[in-house]
Amino acid sequence: MMQDPLKTLCEDPLERRWVWMSLFLAVLVGFVLGLYALSSNIHPPSNVETIDSTRLHLTEEFAEDNLGVKQNEDGSLTVTMVAARYGFFPPEIEVPTDTPVKFRMASADVLHGVHAPYTNAATMIVPGYVSEFTTSFPTAGKYSFLCNEYCGLGHDSMWSRLTVVDKSAGGAK
């Protein structure tokens, strides 16, 4: 007659000790991470803004004519973009150095991500939600906006160009 492996596991003191140790470590790691999140004031974003991805092009903010860079009254900039297979729209953005830039992005189809290498500009773009982050670029140059979430067969060609110009050389387009 065959012996039950679960019963054998529970009877072996060494195995029982390892089960209790692994459970203790899992609870300890969860406690430490929770404590760290509370002490560092880390929390999920509270300004969750939803949008209907199927009607994205019909909304006022994300309509094709309203995409791009806009100057705010306080001198900062707002960049409105749409991520869709397989590109970011508008495909080219120009901003000045040392200026606060708020990026507002929405996905027209699937999960996308955006990342500008050598900068702190990065976020996930989830369908049905508006993704938003604010940053500034201290160094002039040309940067690629790359999709960093696999979105389909054309994922490797999904990118756009971010040009950061010297603030003294003039504005954004």
TrEMBL record:
It is an enzyme of class 1 (oxidoreductase). One of its GO terms (molecular function) is cytochrome-c oxidase activity. The keyword Cell membrane does not apply. It holds the Pfam family COX2. Gene3D superfamilies: Cupredoxins - blue copper proteins. Its EC number is 1.9.3.1. Residues 74-173 form the Cytochrome oxidase subunit II copper A binding domain. Coiled coil: none annotated. GO terms for cellular component: cell envelope; membrane. It is found in: Cell envelope. This is Ba3-type cytochrome c oxidase CydAB, subunit B. It comes from Solemya velum gill symbiont. The lineage of its organism: Bacteria, Pseudomonadati, Pseudomonadota, Gammaproteobacteria, sulfur-oxidizing symbionts. The gene is cydB.
